[in-house]
Amino acid sequence: MKKQLQFLIVLIFSFTCHLGFAQEKTVSGTVNDTDGLPLPGVNVIVQNTNRGTQTDFDGNYSIEVSPGEVLTFSYVGFTTETLTVGEANNYNIILQEDASQLDEVVVVGYGTQSKRKLTDNVAKLTAEDIEEVPVPNIQSTIAGKAAGVQIAPTNGKVEGGVNIRIRGIASIGAGSEPLYVLDGVPLINNNESSNGAPTNPLLTLSANEIESIDILKDASAAAVYGSRGANGVVIITTKKGKEGRSSFTLNYSYGISEPTNEMEWLNADEYIELFTEAAVNSFGEQDGTEYIEGIFDFLAGDTDWRSREVDTDWQDLALQSGHVQDASLSMSGGNEKTTYFFSGAYNDTEGIITGNDLERINSRINVTHSFDEKFRAGMNTSFSRTEIDRIANDNAFVNPIQAVAQPAISPAYLENGDPNPNTLYPNFLLQDKHAFYKTVIRRITGRAFGEYSFTDNFRFNSDFGYDLYYQTEDSYTGRLAPFQSTNGEGYASSVGTESYVASNYFTFSEQFGSAHDLEVVAGMEYNQSNRRFQSITGIQFPTDDFETISSAAEITGGAGSESANSFLSYFGRVTYSFLDRYLFKASVRRDGSSRFGEDVKYGTFPAISAGWIVSEEAFLEDSDVLSFLKLRASYGETGNANIGDFASLGLFGGISYNQRPGIAPIQASNPQLTWESVNQLDLGLEYGFFDNRISGEIDYYVKESDGLIFNEPLPGTSGQSSITRNIGVLENSGVEFVLNTRNVQTDKLSWNTNFNISRNINEVKVLPDGQDVVSGQTILREGEALSSFYLIEYAGVDPDNGDALYYINEDGGGRETTTDPNEANRIIAGQPYADVIAGLTNTINFSGLDFTATFVGEWGASIYNGGGIYQSANADFFDNQTRDQLRRWQQPGDITDVPQARLFGGNGTANSTRYLQDADFIRLRNLTIGYTIPDALTDEIGLEKFRLYFTAINLLTFTDFDLYDPESVSDAGQGAGVAFYSAPSARTMSIGVNINF
């Protein structure tokens, strides 16, 4: 018995020693993401055991483990990593974001939803998609990243307007811009410019403060915003703090800019040659030569044009090399009670057009605090100030780009260095020296919110949002500036628009057993906007050193107005899933707006959608090929209320008659004016293959806009020129295709590709009495695309005599030609909007190197060169000509598309398809190459991350378009798709640094 007891003791001791040997090792380390930020709450499990731990707020972990055992590191939204424990005691882990994970969260309005269970069409962009793109507007950072979303910059001015078209244009007379919602606050997005060219109101936002952008494309997604969701909804979510230690991020970049393209113009030799020939052709050898040499004497001033003393490159004076400087600093962090995010940003942009600059500062504070388990509250606040040195609109003679019309033999400056005042057209350099136009935009946005949870699945949210857009414009035109006949003229204006919104809603979410998942949202919202505008003009200043209105001797003009509008809304949404694969959603919103007629102020906007995750079915769940397949369909109605504040009312205005005050009617009333409504059907398929190494979406949609709002002309006897009515039907239909691939995924190398392409067909379905509406070079016609180009057709040049020819296009299909443009009939020759748009993004990471390239492409649009009748007119007047006019007809038998040069001859200068061009292009929108210094080096200097990068915008453009830019059109209201001395986009190349500490 004693021996047995001794044997048992030895056995227990040996076993205990063996256990002690096996478990005596403690392993520790940190877990970070690819940006070097710690990940709290990461599960650290010993494989095939129930032993494990979690990382703390700083990403640290510690666990007892035996050599040879395997640790598994897992975290929601990141790929799972494994590690076999060796002799070392410290292991630092970096988790990669799981790009294939379809459970990412999207913002859908008054809540969020899992992408996997989404039955709507929502495109999501993250901070990585939009940061480090050196442009002053956030819209341009989206280009090429979302299917069916077209980004259309007006031209190359730093403040230029940017149009986002989501699945085409849904309106003719009301606004076509989407609704922008910043942290739950609908943003003011009105163009308040007074100089004839639009500004972009969203210039006030900085990309560094944005966490994500969710674009709601179909009616089911946008219907919760009801009356303002017809053109889609862009939900912008700003960054927030996370639990854990404080993190500081610094980004700085500096770049140079240049025009993406310059046109070729005649030099002095070519100008003299062409215009001498044109004068001789028109007036004969002797008279023509004598006449044109007198003109040359005038244009050359005191210089000798015969010896070619002057050969001015006016384009080189109008366009310049600019720069972009961008800096931002942010701090974030928090604990289990309070999280915070602070940021500041500075942008300094010198444009590529002489005299066009922008400077902006931004700051943001986001704070959230949990008072207890039931109640949390917070505040998001931002301030920005944007100052813009502006130039004239495209239709003004003093616009720098119009300088290309000046002959090369005219000197730009006098001998004393002053700009030459004796040029063919006003010299923009005089305007640049003796005048200015400055716009300053100050913007404050804020949101205070509270959330009270009655139970774990029932809560109440109350939000109050505020948006203040305050703009001042000041200009002064000195006595030596062009067109100035007085001793200086000053102008000052201010406009303040404030919008506040109060939202209150309940959210109930519950899982019933393992099969049912239900969420219900119901609430109300009130939105009030007030606008006040005032301006004053004065002349006769003592000297040009006094530039403010207070120094004007005479006040010659003034204006002032106030307006307001309000929306009262009730909304509800029900989301239900059965067995996590049968998905249903229904929503409804009822909106009332002060903008509409007394009896039709309210509109109801319902939507319904459903989805089926087919890959969850038993017959597919074990598939090694198909990893995800979802079918979805939606149908709903949204509205458009982007019209004037008092559009339905009969208005009177104050007038002066014989210096006596009075009132007069200024607007006809229409008490039946109501919402434009957009009905949209969407059918979609989402797919994933090979563990989602290949994934994407396919969508088909039909979007019909009914009750289109625009001004209908009235007979003169009515006393009013027009009345605003609901007239007409417009349809957009199309398909979208998205393909995401993870081409290579190894420990050191990853290569991901996103490709999207969409086609949109736009058609005017119904117009009043079926009548065409012609405006300039465009037409609205039933059965045709919106604002189609309506022009006589250029037939080329008669090889016998150099006459320009036009097709008569008689009924019956005749193709006879004429030299008289008045005998030719107009045809529909193209459309201003692309019907196919695409984007391709490749992202590669290899051992600290990162590479991203985004291409965008557009096909099917045309641009009409409104300046062509002056600048490409085979020397019809004295404007300098594009160099292609040198291939003009000169003798019988010449085959060319440029007619004979005839001064004042009007030979081929009619508005025709001669000046219409296809605007197809492919552009390398963004290229970024970066290098992140290894952790071993950054740890020594106390940094979490140090990254150097190079970024280029609009680096390459592939196009047959031979004007300045296939994306640049007039900003002076000359019609859709019309270019008129419109500046090209900027090509910007920057180097920068990211530092996290």
UniProtKB/TrEMBL annotation:
Main localisation: membrane
Signal peptide per UniProt: 1-22
Compartments (UniProt record): Cell outer membrane
Any one Pfam family match given in the protein's UniProt record, by short name: Plug
Membrane topology term: Multi-pass membrane protein
Keywords, sorted A to Z: Cell outer membrane, Membrane, Receptor, Signal, Transmembrane, Transmembrane beta strand, Transport
GO cellular component: cell outer membrane
Ranges for domain TonB-dependent receptor plug: 115-233
InterPro entries, sorted: Beta-barrel_TonB_sf, CarboxyPept-like_regulatory, Plug_dom, Plug_dom_sf, TonB-dep_OMP_SusC/RagA, TonB-dep_OMP_SusC/RagA_CS, TonB-dep_rcpt-like
Stated family: Belongs to the TonB-dependent receptor family.
NCBIfam families, alphabetized: OMP_RagA_SusC (TIGR04056), SusC_RagA_signa (TIGR04057)
UniProt-recorded name of the protein: TonB-dependent receptor
Natural source organism: Christiangramia oceanisediminis
